[in-house]
Amino acid sequence: MKVSVIITFLFIGILRVQAQEVLMDLTVNPTLRHLQKQDQHLSNRIAGAGDTLSLPFRDDFSQEDVYPSTDRWEGRSVFINNGYGYNPVTYGVATFDGLKADGTPYDFSNTTQGSADTLTSLPLAMDTLKNVGDSALFSFYYQPQGRGNAPEEEDSLILQFYTPALGWHSIWNKAGNDTNITWFTKVIIPVKDTAYFKRGFRFRFRNYATLSGNIDHWHLDYVRLYIPKSAGDTIEEDVAFTKPIPSLIRNFTAMPWPHYLLDATGNMTDSMSVVQYNHYPGLQLVDNGAYVQDESGTLVHTFPTSANNQNGMTEFSYRVPVGFTFPDNGMDSAEFRVTAYKKFTNDLNKNNDTISAIQRFYNYYAYDDGTVENGYGLSVANGKIAYRFDMATTDTLRAVQMYFNQMVSSTTGHSFKLTVWAGGGTPGNILYQQIGLRPTYTDSLNKFHTYVLDSAISLSGSFYIGWVQVTPDLLNLGLDRNIISNDRMFFNTTGNWQNSQLKGSWMIRPVFGDSLVMPNAVPEVPVMNNDIEIYPNPALTVLHVRYKQGISDLLNFEVMDMTGKRVLVGVTENGTMDVSTLPAGLYMVSFSENNRSSGVTIRKFIKSE
């Protein structure tokens, strides 16, 4: 399972100098930021009389929830995920970083270093180990960095034990200069001291890190505390899923539902790859199966069950022929849950026997998996990025969704031109360009910000979507590191287009359709391009706003200059807005009502002298 990721990160340092492509660490965790908005309590579970656990203790973090299970752990500061660990032991790891449970930094100072995340077990009934010679084994796997940020020498991961009589004290620690960043290292600790054989025994992992962001990563997997059956009982007798189910759509992770239905068979992949790891020392025969359900839970397809021989202590990938299409539900969008499972009665751990993924069909195309591991940017003015998309029909491009990572510093002066190029081997002629846009981040469930086109355009076949940036400021676009789409990612800083060298998928999604409807058929940002007119244009002192029936006389407006700087905000009065204070030049104005469902309209105007 060793793959040389360290070479990639060293190469990134060279790219900063030679090609102006920059890989950035994250300031916040967007997934946890969203959950914090849903759940403002985030209170730790307090251990009580009923919380004392019996041995064995086992958790490999194979779960859908992003917080540790309250059946085994106290606290929520670590992040359970399947994106940051590289070649995890099983599906899912616990990630330690410099962020609180709500996904924001412990301290925004770039120099503050100290205790960060803590993962604490509930009390355990270790008083069952009373006889002389009794012992237990404590084991776990750890990895520094993974797909995230490498901890420095002054950072560390520690393990501590607790008893009511002794309190907390350190058992094991690892400094941040560990070089084993491309695989997980196993640690086995015999527990023989009778001082630990007390009811109320606990253990905890804690990291010391820079407290200013989503950095200094450690990843933890497969934690066990158990009574060994024999002296050599140190192996996890387990066959476990290790990687997520891939998209069943050819070339994309998501695509517009009407586009899929035009050629459902052609849009399906030939086979589905499922990856497991056999932790047994010898060959095991494992029965595997999979099925698909629609949004109501109705079974729509069952894959044939297959028996697979898996060699001991190796990763095993098997392919299942797809041989079906997602059924038409008569709606304009759809979701399907794809589930893979295995039948193996001797397994130590049943939690990792099943994995699921959601196949989404809305109104956009996507290459990314929806989660961000790094930020991407170009450190040169007039730098361009272009993302290639190919579709087999003609449709109207209404908007472009982009995920920008939250930055501590202001993005007011960071401006770009949203650009669409004609297709070909590299980007061709400019088909559309919208100026004066700024990076905008959101804590919504979608996480993407929607840039509505001021004039919808018709596209077909091959085309490119991206930006031309106005300044050399890093825009910090989200980069998914788990799906590689570099053959479709192009950048230009010298006048020549070339493929991006930073592996991953840019989080950019073109949105199509007769109208702009966001996922789950919620019209969050409808298009209103024909509903508002402004005049005169050019304007000297007053800009009149004419709106059709059904639009409020009181409209919020925001005026930006061509660098993307906001220069005027307010509310229209009797159908007018005062622009007399603006210098002469070209501007963009966006209108919206207080109710988001009424949508936004963007207009350009000239302020005359």
Supply the key terms.
609 residues, mainly beta, seven-stranded antiparallel beta sheet, six-stranded antiparallel beta sheet, 37 strands, globular, disordered N terminus
| Cα end-to-end separation | 67 Å
Specify the number of helices: 4
Based on secondary structure, the structural category is mainly beta
- Please give the largest β-sheet: 7 strands, antiparallel
Residues in helix, %: under 10%
Rg measurement, Å:
27 Å
Residue-averaged pLDDT, rounded?
Answer: 84
Strand proportion, as a percent range, falls in: 35-45%
Inertia-based shape: globular
Number of strands: 37
Low-confidence segments, given as residue ranges, are 1-18, 37-50, 519-530, 595-599
What does this structure look like?
With 609 residues, the chain is mostly beta strands. 5% of the residues lie in helices and 42% in strands. The longest helix is centred in the first third of the chain and has 14 residues, at 5-18. It is globular. The chain starts with a helix and ends with a strand. Residues 1-18, 37-50, 519-530 and 595-599 have low confidence and may be disordered.
Structure summarized in a few sentences:
This protein is mainly beta and 609 residues long. It contains 4 helices and 37 strands.
